[in-house]
Amino acid sequence: MAQAAVTRLLADFGLADRPPLGSGQEADIYGLDDQRVLRVYRRPMDAAHLTRMAGFYGDIERGAAAFATPSVLDWGVRDVVSFSVERRIGGVSLAGALGRLEGEFRLRALRSDVEAAAAIAGLGHPQRAFGEVLTEPPIRAGAWAGFILARAGAELERHRGLLDGRVDQPDRALEALGAMLAAQGAVEPRLVHGDFYPENVLVGESGEVTGVIDFGGLTLIGDAQLDLACAVFFLTGMASVTADDRKFVLDHALGLGLNPRSLALYRLYYAFRFLGAPRENDGLLRWCAATIEAAGGG
Protein backbone atom coordinates (compact mmCIF):
# COMPACT_ATOMS: atom_id res chain seq x y z
CA MET A 1 0.00 0.00 0.00
CA ALA A 2 1.55 3.33 -1.09
CA GLN A 3 1.75 5.58 1.96
CA ALA A 4 1.56 8.76 -0.13
CA ALA A 5 -1.75 7.58 -1.62
CA VAL A 6 -3.08 6.76 1.86
CA THR A 7 -2.06 10.21 3.07
CA ARG A 8 -3.96 11.81 0.18
CA LEU A 9 -7.03 9.68 0.87
CA LEU A 10 -7.04 10.60 4.56
CA ALA A 11 -6.67 14.27 3.67
CA ASP A 12 -9.62 14.02 1.27
CA PHE A 13 -11.74 12.70 4.15
CA GLY A 14 -10.51 15.42 6.52
CA LEU A 15 -8.41 12.96 8.52
CA ALA A 16 -4.92 14.30 7.93
CA ASP A 17 -2.56 13.47 10.82
CA ARG A 18 -5.36 11.72 12.71
CA PRO A 19 -4.35 8.34 14.22
CA PRO A 20 -6.48 5.27 13.49
CA LEU A 21 -9.05 4.05 15.96
CA GLY A 22 -7.73 0.56 15.41
CA SER A 23 -5.55 -1.53 13.13
CA GLY A 24 -5.79 -5.13 11.98
CA GLN A 25 -4.14 -7.43 9.49
CA GLU A 26 -6.45 -6.29 6.70
CA ALA A 27 -7.13 -2.60 7.35
CA ASP A 28 -6.77 0.51 9.49
CA ILE A 29 -9.95 2.11 10.87
CA TYR A 30 -10.42 5.87 11.26
CA GLY A 31 -13.28 7.76 12.88
CA LEU A 32 -15.13 10.05 10.49
CA ASP A 33 -17.82 11.22 12.91
CA ASP A 34 -20.18 9.78 15.53
CA GLN A 35 -21.98 7.71 12.91
CA ARG A 36 -19.30 6.55 10.47
CA VAL A 37 -15.79 5.09 10.21
CA LEU A 38 -13.38 4.87 7.30
CA ARG A 39 -11.73 1.51 6.67
CA VAL A 40 -8.48 1.76 4.65
CA TYR A 41 -7.37 -1.62 3.33
CA ARG A 42 -3.75 -2.64 3.41
CA ARG A 43 -3.88 -4.22 -0.05
CA PRO A 44 -5.80 -3.23 -3.18
CA MET A 45 -9.27 -4.72 -3.62
CA ASP A 46 -11.24 -4.41 -6.82
CA ALA A 47 -14.72 -2.93 -6.95
CA ALA A 48 -16.28 -6.37 -7.42
CA HIS A 49 -14.82 -7.60 -4.13
CA LEU A 50 -15.96 -4.47 -2.29
CA THR A 51 -19.44 -4.95 -3.74
CA ARG A 52 -19.50 -8.57 -2.54
CA MET A 53 -18.34 -7.47 0.90
CA ALA A 54 -21.12 -4.88 1.13
CA GLY A 55 -23.63 -7.54 0.10
CA PHE A 56 -22.25 -9.95 2.70
CA TYR A 57 -22.65 -7.37 5.46
CA GLY A 58 -26.21 -6.75 4.32
CA ASP A 59 -26.95 -10.49 4.49
CA ILE A 60 -25.72 -10.92 8.04
CA GLU A 61 -27.31 -7.68 9.21
CA ARG A 62 -30.68 -9.16 8.31
CA GLY A 63 -29.95 -11.90 10.86
CA ALA A 64 -30.97 -9.36 13.53
CA ALA A 65 -28.40 -10.28 16.16
CA ALA A 66 -28.59 -8.78 19.63
CA PHE A 67 -25.37 -6.93 18.77
CA ALA A 68 -24.45 -4.77 15.77
CA THR A 69 -22.47 -6.01 12.76
CA PRO A 70 -20.76 -3.82 10.15
CA SER A 71 -22.81 -2.03 7.52
CA VAL A 72 -21.09 -0.63 4.41
CA LEU A 73 -22.42 2.79 3.38
CA ASP A 74 -19.96 3.51 0.55
CA TRP A 75 -16.80 2.07 -0.95
CA GLY A 76 -14.26 2.70 -3.63
CA VAL A 77 -10.67 2.63 -4.87
CA ARG A 78 -8.67 5.87 -5.03
CA ASP A 79 -5.04 6.02 -6.21
CA VAL A 80 -4.77 2.21 -5.76
CA VAL A 81 -5.98 2.49 -2.15
CA SER A 82 -9.20 0.59 -1.40
CA PHE A 83 -11.54 1.92 1.25
CA SER A 84 -15.04 1.59 2.65
CA VAL A 85 -17.19 3.89 4.74
CA GLU A 86 -19.08 1.93 7.38
CA ARG A 87 -21.57 2.55 10.14
CA ARG A 88 -19.83 3.26 13.42
CA ILE A 89 -20.61 0.76 16.15
CA GLY A 90 -20.62 1.97 19.74
CA GLY A 91 -18.41 0.46 22.41
CA VAL A 92 -14.76 -0.32 22.98
CA SER A 93 -12.85 -3.49 22.23
CA LEU A 94 -13.16 -6.28 24.75
CA ALA A 95 -9.35 -6.46 24.73
CA GLY A 96 -9.16 -2.91 26.02
CA ALA A 97 -12.12 -3.21 28.38
CA LEU A 98 -10.64 -6.20 30.21
CA GLY A 99 -7.87 -3.93 31.44
CA ARG A 100 -10.35 -1.99 33.59
CA LEU A 101 -13.59 -3.97 34.04
CA GLU A 102 -13.99 -5.65 37.41
CA GLY A 103 -16.47 -7.76 39.33
CA GLU A 104 -19.88 -8.36 37.78
CA PHE A 105 -19.15 -6.06 34.83
CA ARG A 106 -16.11 -8.18 33.98
CA LEU A 107 -18.02 -11.45 34.26
CA ARG A 108 -20.85 -10.00 32.16
CA ALA A 109 -18.37 -9.01 29.43
CA LEU A 110 -16.78 -12.46 29.36
CA ARG A 111 -20.19 -14.17 29.41
CA SER A 112 -21.54 -11.91 26.68
CA ASP A 113 -18.45 -12.56 24.56
CA VAL A 114 -19.02 -16.31 24.59
CA GLU A 115 -22.72 -15.87 23.86
CA ALA A 116 -21.92 -13.61 20.91
CA ALA A 117 -19.54 -16.27 19.57
CA ALA A 118 -22.37 -18.81 19.72
CA ALA A 119 -24.81 -16.38 18.10
CA ILE A 120 -22.71 -15.79 14.95
CA ALA A 121 -23.85 -19.15 13.57
CA GLY A 122 -27.46 -17.97 13.57
CA LEU A 123 -26.88 -14.93 11.35
CA GLY A 124 -27.09 -16.94 8.16
CA HIS A 125 -25.59 -16.51 4.69
CA PRO A 126 -26.69 -17.90 1.31
CA GLN A 127 -23.38 -19.65 0.51
CA ARG A 128 -23.83 -23.41 0.56
CA ALA A 129 -20.28 -24.71 0.08
CA PHE A 130 -18.02 -25.11 3.08
CA GLY A 131 -15.14 -22.66 3.08
CA GLU A 132 -14.19 -19.04 2.70
CA VAL A 133 -16.70 -16.28 2.07
CA LEU A 134 -14.62 -13.15 1.42
CA THR A 135 -11.14 -14.50 0.59
CA GLU A 136 -10.00 -14.09 -3.04
CA PRO A 137 -9.62 -16.66 -4.47
CA PRO A 138 -11.53 -18.76 -1.93
CA ILE A 139 -10.89 -22.35 -0.94
CA ARG A 140 -14.19 -24.22 -0.73
CA ALA A 141 -15.24 -27.86 -0.52
CA GLY A 142 -18.29 -30.06 -0.33
CA ALA A 143 -17.35 -31.23 3.18
CA TRP A 144 -15.98 -29.37 6.18
CA ALA A 145 -13.06 -31.76 6.63
CA GLY A 146 -12.14 -31.30 2.97
CA PHE A 147 -11.97 -27.54 3.36
CA ILE A 148 -9.96 -27.60 6.61
CA LEU A 149 -7.38 -29.99 5.18
CA ALA A 150 -7.17 -28.06 1.91
CA ARG A 151 -6.59 -24.74 3.67
CA ALA A 152 -4.14 -26.15 6.22
CA GLY A 153 -2.28 -28.02 3.48
CA ALA A 154 -2.07 -24.91 1.31
CA GLU A 155 -0.61 -22.89 4.18
CA LEU A 156 1.92 -25.62 4.94
CA GLU A 157 3.12 -25.78 1.34
CA ARG A 158 3.32 -22.00 1.05
CA HIS A 159 5.22 -21.52 4.30
CA ARG A 160 6.99 -24.84 4.82
CA GLY A 161 10.36 -23.11 4.85
CA LEU A 162 9.40 -21.19 8.00
CA LEU A 163 9.28 -24.52 9.85
CA ASP A 164 12.79 -25.63 8.85
CA GLY A 165 14.78 -26.25 12.01
CA ARG A 166 11.62 -25.93 14.11
CA VAL A 167 9.44 -28.90 13.10
CA ASP A 168 10.85 -32.23 11.95
CA GLN A 169 7.87 -33.70 10.08
CA PRO A 170 5.00 -31.21 9.75
CA ASP A 171 3.09 -33.53 7.44
CA ARG A 172 2.48 -35.79 10.43
CA ALA A 173 0.58 -32.95 12.10
CA LEU A 174 -1.51 -32.56 8.94
CA GLU A 175 -2.35 -36.28 9.18
CA ALA A 176 -3.26 -35.79 12.85
CA LEU A 177 -5.58 -32.96 11.83
CA GLY A 178 -7.26 -35.30 9.34
CA ALA A 179 -7.76 -37.92 12.06
CA MET A 180 -9.36 -35.35 14.36
CA LEU A 181 -11.73 -34.28 11.59
CA ALA A 182 -12.66 -37.89 10.83
CA ALA A 183 -13.54 -38.42 14.49
CA GLN A 184 -15.63 -35.25 14.49
CA GLY A 185 -18.33 -36.58 12.20
CA ALA A 186 -20.79 -34.56 10.13
CA VAL A 187 -20.88 -30.77 10.42
CA GLU A 188 -23.80 -28.47 9.64
CA PRO A 189 -22.80 -25.47 7.50
CA ARG A 190 -23.06 -22.29 9.56
CA LEU A 191 -21.60 -18.79 9.39
CA VAL A 192 -18.26 -18.59 11.22
CA HIS A 193 -16.53 -15.29 11.98
CA GLY A 194 -13.20 -17.11 12.10
CA ASP A 195 -11.29 -14.32 13.87
CA PHE A 196 -13.32 -14.09 17.08
CA TYR A 197 -10.57 -12.28 18.93
CA PRO A 198 -11.18 -9.75 21.77
CA GLU A 199 -10.03 -6.88 19.53
CA ASN A 200 -12.94 -7.69 17.19
CA VAL A 201 -15.61 -7.70 19.91
CA LEU A 202 -16.98 -4.37 21.16
CA VAL A 203 -18.57 -3.96 24.58
CA GLY A 204 -20.45 -1.16 26.33
CA GLU A 205 -19.96 0.31 29.80
CA SER A 206 -22.04 -2.43 31.40
CA GLY A 207 -20.00 -5.17 29.75
CA GLU A 208 -22.60 -6.33 27.22
CA VAL A 209 -21.35 -6.97 23.67
CA THR A 210 -22.47 -4.09 21.43
CA GLY A 211 -20.91 -5.25 18.18
CA VAL A 212 -18.73 -7.77 16.38
CA ILE A 213 -16.46 -6.38 13.65
CA ASP A 214 -13.79 -7.44 11.15
CA PHE A 215 -15.50 -10.25 9.31
CA GLY A 216 -12.96 -10.86 6.55
CA GLY A 217 -10.44 -13.31 5.17
CA LEU A 218 -10.97 -15.82 7.99
CA THR A 219 -14.78 -15.77 7.73
CA LEU A 220 -16.19 -19.13 6.67
CA ILE A 221 -19.20 -21.28 6.15
CA GLY A 222 -18.39 -24.15 8.45
CA ASP A 223 -18.52 -25.48 11.99
CA ALA A 224 -20.16 -23.22 14.60
CA GLN A 225 -17.84 -24.81 17.19
CA LEU A 226 -14.94 -22.88 15.70
CA ASP A 227 -16.04 -19.47 17.00
CA LEU A 228 -16.77 -20.91 20.45
CA ALA A 229 -13.29 -22.42 20.48
CA CYS A 230 -11.83 -19.05 19.43
CA ALA A 231 -13.62 -17.33 22.31
CA VAL A 232 -11.74 -19.70 24.63
CA PHE A 233 -8.22 -19.97 23.26
CA PHE A 234 -7.79 -16.47 21.80
CA LEU A 235 -7.73 -15.23 25.41
CA THR A 236 -4.46 -17.09 25.97
CA GLY A 237 -1.47 -14.82 26.34
CA MET A 238 -3.44 -11.61 26.96
CA ALA A 239 -1.82 -9.76 29.86
CA SER A 240 -5.13 -8.54 31.26
CA VAL A 241 -6.72 -12.02 31.33
CA THR A 242 -6.40 -14.16 34.45
CA ALA A 243 -6.61 -17.91 34.94
CA ASP A 244 -10.02 -17.36 36.58
CA ASP A 245 -11.18 -15.49 33.47
CA ARG A 246 -10.11 -18.33 31.21
CA LYS A 247 -11.82 -20.94 33.40
CA PHE A 248 -15.02 -18.87 33.47
CA VAL A 249 -15.04 -18.56 29.67
CA LEU A 250 -14.27 -22.24 29.15
CA ASP A 251 -17.03 -23.35 31.53
CA HIS A 252 -19.57 -21.06 29.84
CA ALA A 253 -18.55 -22.23 26.37
CA LEU A 254 -18.89 -25.86 27.43
CA GLY A 255 -22.32 -25.02 28.81
CA LEU A 256 -23.30 -23.61 25.41
CA GLY A 257 -22.29 -26.82 23.66
CA LEU A 258 -18.56 -26.55 22.97
CA ASN A 259 -17.05 -30.01 22.48
CA PRO A 260 -13.69 -30.14 24.33
CA ARG A 261 -12.18 -31.99 21.35
CA SER A 262 -12.88 -28.95 19.19
CA LEU A 263 -10.33 -26.95 21.17
CA ALA A 264 -7.46 -29.21 20.11
CA LEU A 265 -8.76 -29.54 16.56
CA TYR A 266 -9.10 -25.84 15.88
CA ARG A 267 -5.94 -24.89 17.77
CA LEU A 268 -4.05 -27.09 15.30
CA TYR A 269 -5.98 -25.64 12.34
CA TYR A 270 -4.96 -22.12 13.37
CA ALA A 271 -1.35 -23.20 13.83
CA PHE A 272 -1.33 -23.96 10.09
CA ARG A 273 -3.58 -21.03 9.14
CA PHE A 274 -1.43 -18.42 10.91
CA LEU A 275 1.92 -19.61 9.55
CA GLY A 276 2.07 -16.76 7.06
CA ALA A 277 0.32 -14.13 9.18
CA PRO A 278 2.07 -10.73 9.35
CA ARG A 279 3.96 -10.48 12.62
CA GLU A 280 6.01 -7.89 14.45
CA ASN A 281 8.00 -10.53 16.30
CA ASP A 282 8.62 -14.25 16.23
CA GLY A 283 6.13 -15.17 18.96
CA LEU A 284 3.27 -16.24 16.71
CA LEU A 285 5.54 -18.36 14.52
CA ARG A 286 7.00 -20.03 17.60
CA TRP A 287 3.48 -20.88 18.79
CA CYS A 288 2.51 -22.26 15.37
CA ALA A 289 5.67 -24.36 15.16
CA ALA A 290 5.34 -25.71 18.71
CA THR A 291 1.67 -26.65 18.16
CA ILE A 292 2.43 -28.38 14.84
CA GLU A 293 5.45 -30.20 16.31
CA ALA A 294 3.43 -31.45 19.30
CA ALA A 295 0.57 -32.67 17.10
CA GLY A 296 3.02 -34.53 14.88
CA GLY A 297 4.40 -36.47 17.83
CA GLY A 298 7.55 -34.37 18.16
Walk me through the structure:
By secondary structure, the protein is an alpha+beta fold. 42% of the residues lie in helices and 16% in strands. It has 2 domains: 3-87, Phosphorylase Kinase, domain 1; 92-295, Alpha-Beta Complex (Aminoglycoside 3'-phosphotransferase, Chain: A, domain 2), CATH 3.90.1200.10. The chain is built from 10 helices and 12 strands. The strands form 3 sheets. Strands 1-2-3-5-4 form a 5-stranded antiparallel β-sheet, sandwiched between helices. A 4-stranded antiparallel β-sheet has the order 8-7-12-9, covered by helices on one side. Strands 6-10-11 form a 3-stranded antiparallel β-sheet. Strand 1 (22-23) and strand 2 (27-31) form a beta hairpin. Helix 6 (170-184) crosses helix 10 and helix 9 (260-273) packs across helix 10. The termini are far apart.
List the helices and strands and how they pair.
Layout lengths: L2 H10 L9 E2 L3 E5 L4 E6 L5 H15 L10 E7 L2 E7 L4 E2 H4 L5 H17 L10 E3 L7 E2 L2 H16 L10 H15 L5 E3 L8 E3 L5 E4 L7 E3 L2 H9 L9 H13 L4 H14 L9 H13 L3
Main sheet record: 5 strands, antiparallel
Q: At the fourth CATH level, what is the homologous superfamily of the largest domain?
A: Aminoglycoside phosphotransferase (APH), C-terminal lobe
N- and C-termini, Cα separation? 40 Å
The tally of structural domains comes to 2
Secondary structural class: alpha+beta
What's the overall geometry? globular
Would you give the CATH topology of the largest domain?
A: Aminoglycoside 3'-phosphotransferase, Chain: A, domain 2
